[in-house]
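Now for a chain:

_____
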Amino acid sequence: MVAVNAVDLLKKEIPVEEESVCIHDGVITALVLVDIINGFCTLGAGNLAPREPNDKMLEMIEEAVKLSKVFCEKKWPVLAFLDTHQPGKLEHPYPSHCLAGSHESDLVPALQWLEKESNVTIRRKDCYDGYIGSMEEDGSNVFVDWVKNNNIQTLLVAGVCTDICVLDFVCSTLSARNRGFLPPLKDVVVYSRGCATFDFPESAARETKDALTHPQEIMQHMGLYMAKGRGAKIAKDVSFGALK
């Protein structure tokens, strides 16, 4: 009897239809980068950083850099969420991570140049969901205002983790769009190669208190599947061109 690979079986039973997406100059499009910071992406940078080199994480950073350069050359809006927590305020079930003022909560070296670009907005958040993390004490929302002020019609989303912070942000954004809170936003596109998640095998989880098993390839697929199910487009590749 031939053994069936769990990932292959998952992709067969719940496939994710990906498409080629062309971003046209005539459609106001913005880029959202979710938590591409040292504490999640740089080898050995913290409790939730990769423990060994990870090709998927490296590919995600490379694709995010490529997109960022295009958007900055065109002076199109870019919003970068940076996970940033105050000491003593844990985010269960995860250990302390990305503390305010630490190297962990900074953009990865390949993207730090974004902080000097006039079209880039940096938003530090203290929760999984960037939409919720954009809320101010006066009831306003930095992300909502950013969408409205820039008349954004399409959002292109990249970052980490696909099944956690990326997914939570995408789901909230789509729900807000459906309720009419984000005019003129129409489409949310998740770029699969521009997203990644972490790998925490069962053997490691078994030895760590309160830890959950998190197989990278399976959870990447599930994150994309759930985003698709909420109404996002999943892009396998992204190109740019004039509107015909």
